[in-house]
Structures are given as C-alpha cells and as structure tokens.
Amino acid sequence: MIKKLIVPLVGLFVLGGLAAYIYALSTNKIVFGYNLGYQPTQPLPFSHKKHVGQYKVDCKFCHTGVDSTRHASVPSLNVCMKCHSVVKAVDEQGNPSPHIEKLTQAYYDNKPIEWEKVHLLPDHVKFNHAPHVIAGKNCNECHGPIEGMEEVYQWSSLSMGFCVNCHRKPENNAPVNCSTCHY
Ligand code: HEC
Ligand code: HEC
Ligand code: HEC
Ligand code: HEC
Ligand code: HEC
Q1: How many Cβ atoms are within 10 Å of 59's Cβ, its own excluded?
Q2: HSE-CB for 63 with a 13 A CA cutoff
Q3: Is this prediction's pTM over 0.85?
C-alpha cells in the first residue's frame, strides 16, 4: 500500500516544486544571482554621458540595427572616426587626447577595440530588439539612464520576471507563452 503511493507522491512533490519555482521566477520573487549592476572595465573610457547626454548623438547613429535585428550592434571604429578624424579632444596645453590617439592607431592598424559585453542573456532565452523598438519601447525601459552613464552598467535584472511583468501589461499585448522566449 505505502509502496504504491511512493511513486505518485514523489512525482507530486517534484511537480509542485517545479510549479512553485516557475511561479516564483515569473513573478520576480527570485531575483538574486543576476548580473544586476554589472560593470566591466572597458579598454577605452568611452562615455555615454558625454556623447549622448552632452553632445546628443542619437543611439541609432552608433547602435545601427536595433530597430531591425535581434542585436543592437556595438559600433565599429568607422563610426567613431566619422567624428574623431577631426575631433582630437586636446587638453589645456593643446596636447591631443591619448585615448583618441589609441583609437586612431587602432583604426589604421585595422584592429577593432575589444569592448567587454555588459548584457548577456542565458543561451536558452530568445530576445530580439526589433519588435520592442518597433512597438515603441524606449531603450531606457531596459537599459536605464544610459545618457547619464560615464560607464555602462546593467541597470535591470533581466530576470524572467522583469520580461514577463512587462509582457503581461494589457497595453503591451505581448505574448507570454513559454516558447515566445525559450528555445
Ligand atoms: C525590452 C528590453 C530592451 C529594450 C527596449 C532595449 N534593449 Fe538593448 N538589450 C536588452 C537585452 C535583454 C540585451 C541582451 C541581449 C542578449 O544577451 O542577447 C540587450 C543588449 C543590448 C546591447 C548589446 C548588444 C546586443 O544586442 O546584445 C546594446 C548595444 C543595446 N542593447 C542597445 C539598445 C538600444 C540602443 C536600445 C534602444 C534603441 C535598446 N537596447 C532597447 C534589452 C532591451
Ligand atoms: C558625433 C561625433 C562623435 C562620434 C561619432 C564619436 N565621438 Fe567621441 N567625442 C566626440 C566629442 C565632441 C568629444 C569631446 C571632445 C572634447 O572634449 O574636446 C568626444 C570625446 C571622446 C573621448 C574622450 C577623449 C578625452 O580624452 O577626453 C573618447 C575616449 C571618445 N570620444 C571615444 C569615442 C569612441 C570610442 C567613439 C566610437 C564608438 C566615438 N568617440 C564616437 C564626438 C564623437
Ligand atoms: C557615439 C556612439 C554611441 C552612442 C551615440 C551610443 N552608444 Fe551605446 N555604446 C557605444 C559603445 C562604443 C559601446 C561599448 C562600450 C561600452 O559598453 O561603453 C556601447 C555600449 C552600450 C550598451 C552596452 C552593450 C553591452 O555590452 O551590453 C548599451 C546598453 C548601450 N550602449 C545603449 C545605448 C543607448 C540606449 C544609447 C542612446 C541613449 C547609446 N547607447 C548611444 C557607443 C555609443
Ligand atoms: C518594457 C516592456 C517589455 C519588456 C521589459 C520586455 N518585453 Fe518583450 N515585448 C514587449 C512588447 C510590447 C513586444 C511586442 C509585441 C508585438 O507587438 O508583437 C514584445 C515582444 C517580444 C518578443 C517577440 C514576440 C514575437 O512576436 O515574436 C520576444 C521574443 C520578447 N518580447 C522577449 C522578451 C525578453 C526575453 C525580455 C526580457 C529580457 C523582454 N521581452 C522584455 C515588451 C517588453
Ligand atoms: C517574456 C519572456 C519569457 C517568457 C514568456 C518565459 N520566460 Fe522563462 N526565462 C526568461 C528569461 C529572460 C530567463 C533567464 C533569467 C532567469 O533565469 O530568470 C528565463 C529563465 C527560465 C528558467 C531557468 C531558470 C534558471 O535558473 O536558469 C526556466 C526553468 C524558465 N524560464 C521557464 C519558463 C516557463 C515554464 C515559461 C512558461 C510558463 C517561461 N519560462 C516563460 C524569459 C521568459
């Protein structure tokens, strides 16, 4: 009698545990362990605060493809040199910036700058920038106040709850079935 019950009971526990776990994930109850605030050291001190906040360069000038593809591409040196072939950023003594010299050298040596990735979802998650940008979602909703960041950091948790909470909002009319976001 007991033996016959063990298998279904264990099964129930496992299923119950899994359901609770998925519920917790989808309601943002588990948020520890994410890369919230992650800010790797970059090979060059590129400042969004300066380029976007101060000089008002549009995000899409550098991150081309963000409204048409999955990835929001990080700009190549060609894009930087559109300005920095002229803008040398001299100091008070008239010395050109060592960072711009490094950039120019890398450009002529055809050696890309190896930027460290800030945001990275796990492999089992599908994400695509295009439908979000087309639906009118602002970069800030997921990346925070980039225009004020001297160095970029991960502003949102990028947890499942973070995604699902927004998809659930009636005005978004976004799908919430598992296969939307998982392979
Ligand atoms: C709905 C949330 C969301 C919005 C809106 C959004 N992003 Fe992202 N962004 C992400 C996520 C999630 C990643 C990590 C993607 C990955 O790991 O595959 C990311 C990654 C990036 C990256 C790194 C390259 C890449 O694509 O992996 C850049 C650059 C970027 N976003 C720029 C932008 C810009 C510029 C905008 C606005 C035009 C924008 N994002 C709007 C969520 C968003
Ligand atoms: C639309 C024009 C424009 C583009 C494109 C541009 N920059 Fe700049 N950048 C500027 C201006 C203007 C300054 C400020 C110059 C000054 O302070 O005299 C600046 C300053 C800088 C500085 C600070 C230099 C210092 O020592 O003070 C760095 C580093 C830099 N840019 C890197 C880059 C990189 C890397 C790219 C490409 C991803 C890029 N910039 C693209 C206009 C641009
Ligand atoms: C002048 C070019 C330029 C402009 C304009 C610009 N970016 Fe960037 N962005 C870069 C470069 C270069 C990097 C890689 C170095 C870094 O992370 O700071 C980057 C990195 C990022 C990242 C982190 C990518 C990763 O590795 O996950 C995000 C998010 C991002 N930008 C969003 C934006 C948003 C939003 C705007 C507009 C508000 C914007 N950027 C405007 C050049 C630019
Ligand atoms: C700020 C609100 C918001 C956030 C945060 C958000 N999304 Fe979305 N998502 C939307 C909207 C709106 C759509 C577009 C619905 C439409 O028009 O089809 C969408 C669409 C999608 C689609 C495309 C569905 C299709 O039509 O093929 C995927 C995949 C997706 N989101 C994944 C994610 C993932 C993964 C995250 C978290 C990293 C995320 N989203 C975070 C609002 C959001
Ligand atoms: C709107 C996008 C979205 C939808 C819809 C979604 N997920 Fe997720 N899911 C994510 C993201 C992003 C992660 C990675 C971050 C995390 O672990 O929270 C994730 C992670 C997970 C994980 C792994 C957790 C871990 O510790 O690695 C499981 C399991 C999971 N999801 C199950 C589901 C199930 C089951 C459904 C359907 C009920 C579902 N997801 C629907 C975005 C989504």
Answers
A1: 19
A2: 17
A3: yes
Structure tokens at 104: 């120019």
Q: What is the DSSP letter of 47?
A: -
How far is the C-alpha of 73 from the C-alpha of 71, rounded, in Å? 6
When divided into structural domains, the chain yields a total of 3
For residues 95 and 131, membership in a common domain is answered with: no
Residue 48 Cβ inside 6 Å of ligand 1? The answer reads: no
Q: Which residues form the domain of 17?
A: 1-30
Task: Find out whether the beta carbon of 64 lies less than 6 Å from any atom of ligand 2.
Answer: no
Q: Is the CB of 128 under 6 A from ligand 5?
A: no
User: Which ligand minimizes its atom distance to the CA of 43?
Assistant: 3
Residues 80 and 42 occupy one common structural domain: no
- Shared-domain flag, residues 66 and 55: yes
> For 25-75, how does the pLDDT look when each residue is reduced to its tens digit (9 = 90+)?
555 555 555 889 999 999 999 999 999 999 999 999 999 999 999 999 999
Instruction: Decide whether any atom of ligand 1 lies within 6 Å of the 158 Cβ.
Output: yes
**What length does the chain have?**
183
